[in-house]
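Continuing the batch. This is chain 6 of the set; chains 1 through 5 are on the previous pages. Same settings as before, nothing changed between runs. Recording input and output for traceability.
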Amino acid sequence: MIVPNRIIMDDKFWAKVTEIETQLGDSGRVLIRPSGTEPLIRLMVESKESSLSENLCNSLAELALKI
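Output for chain 6:
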């Protein structure tokens, strides 16, 4: 189970988000929000290339699971 508050407060998590946003530039975005029905967060990375989005989102999710 992912605990949203612990992740949202983590500096490493936000450093990774910033890294991904820099990599995407104006061609994509990162969306992070707490679930309204479960004790977890929703992560979404959008870009012009679906494989890039998937890889970046997976790397962010892996980090979140370690926190």
